[in-house]
Amino acid sequence: MKKRSYLAAATAVFMGGSILTGCGVSQAGRDSTMVPGGSGGVVQIQNVENQVISVNSREEVKITPDMAEITYSVYTQASDAKECQKKNGEDLNHVIEILKGMGFEETSIQTSNYDLDPIYDWDNGQKITGYEMETRVTVSDISIDRVGEVISASVDAGVNHIRSVTYMSSKYDEAYQEALKKAVQSAASKAQAMAEAGNCKLGPIVNINEYVSSQEAKYTDYRSSKAAAEAEAADFGAMNVMPGEVSIEANISVDFAVNR
Predict the structure, then answer these.
(1) Can you tell me the distance from the alpha carbon of 46 to that of 20, in angstroms, rounded to the nearest whole number?
(2) 132 forms bridges with which residues in the sheet?
(3) Are 252 and 187 in contact (CB under 8 A)?
């Protein structure tokens, strides 16, 4: 199964700021004082053994997705629970067979959320008037040029509830490593500027922390009735999918030693 990683549209948010420590000490390095910075920040002067400059850095690399994952579901209504379950299962099996016929392996097809619920008539004493069932189907390892084809064929097969199309890239790892390198370089530039402003000499990196977040970018997220989905199926089948570019972000904090 092709390795893939979710892309990110959402950015991790972490607390912290740039701290300059130990560029000057008093009483043989035993004192610790807080001095206001010029732009609202704080320069912290600590014991000589703890002289570091700490900075946060975030950089991104943009890539063009080459893969997609589609999540949709089969929704069924019937007068009794058994009939509802039976009809939902038949429609679901039809969808799966269509997907297999299009060349998708079973490892790329996942069913989940088998929800069976009564339908109530709240205006007449909470009377049960029928049952509804919804089963979710997720199809992965889809090449970008087949997204429209897969959606159209699935709607024809019985899918009546389209949830999302998520763009991904098979080159995520390479792009993320590049973003990490850029973040470290950016951190070094920030620290150098701070060291010069504090009359210090920047030393080597003594600590790096990586802030990991789930990164995924959804192309669309909506619900539609079977009639609306069928009406849109032709448009999906004919459309030219344009995923554009998505951002891969790296967030880190770096501690640099300070040489006096």
Answers:
(1) 9
(2) 77, 117
(3) yes
- Alpha-carbon gap, residue 168 to 90, rounded angstroms: 31
Phi, psi at 225, each rounded to 5°: -75, 170
For 232-258, b where at least 16 C-beta lie within 10 A, e where not — what string?
bbeebeeeebebeebbbbbbbbbbbbb
| Angle at CA of residue 177, ends 259 and 244, nearest 5° | 130
Helix (H) or strand (E) holding 168: strand 161-169
Beta strands in 185-228 (DSSP E): 201-211, 217-221
pLDDT, tens digit (0-9, with 9 covering 90-100), for 152-195: 899 999 999 888 888 888 888 999 999 999 999 999 999 999 99
Q: Are 254 and 187 in contact (CB under 8 A)?
A: yes
Model pTM? 0.60
Question: Strand, helix or coil at 240?
Answer: coil
Strand partners, 148: none
Query: Pairing between strand 19-21 and 42-45?
Result: parallel
pLDDT (tens digit per residue) in 2-20: 444 434 333 333 334 445 5
> CA 79, 84, 89 angle in degrees (round to 5)?
165
Other beta carbons within 10 Å of 156? 15
